[in-house]
Amino acid sequence: MFGIGIPELVILLVIILVIFGAGKLPEIGSGLGKAIKGFKKGVSEPDEIDVTPKQKDEKP
């Protein structure tokens, strides 16, 4: 996986823990999960097309 082994992952997780703290990690994970879910949903859904008829401005 991109040349990243177990020791590199452990070091990366420790650095993230030091930077953000243990209290923020669940919030960061939740936000990242929601972002990935929204991206997948946006990519998989077809484009929406507005089919409502336009109304003409009637002048008396």
UniProtKB/TrEMBL annotation:
Q: Which Pfam families match?
A: TatA_B_E
Q: Is the keyword Transport in the record?
A: yes
Locate the transmembrane regions by residue number: 6-25
InterPro entries this protein is in?
TatA/B/E, TatA/E
Alphabetized, the UniProt keywords read: Cell membrane, Membrane, Protein transport, Translocation, Transmembrane, Transmembrane helix, Transport
Q: Which residues form a coiled coil?
A: none
Q: Which GO cellular component terms are attached?
A: plasma membrane
Q: Any keyword Transmembrane? A: yes
- Gene3D superfamilies xrefs: 1.20.5.3310
GO process terms (BP): protein transport by the Tat complex
Per UniProt, subcellular location reads as: Cell membrane
Q: How does it sit in the membrane?
A: Single-pass membrane protein
Main location, first listed in the record: membrane
The record's listing under NCBIfam families reads:
tatAE
Q: Which HAMAP family match?
A: TatA_E (MF_00236)
What's the protein called, per UniProt?
A: Twin-arginine translocation protein TatA
Show the taxonomic lineage: unclassified sequences, metagenomes, ecological metagenomes
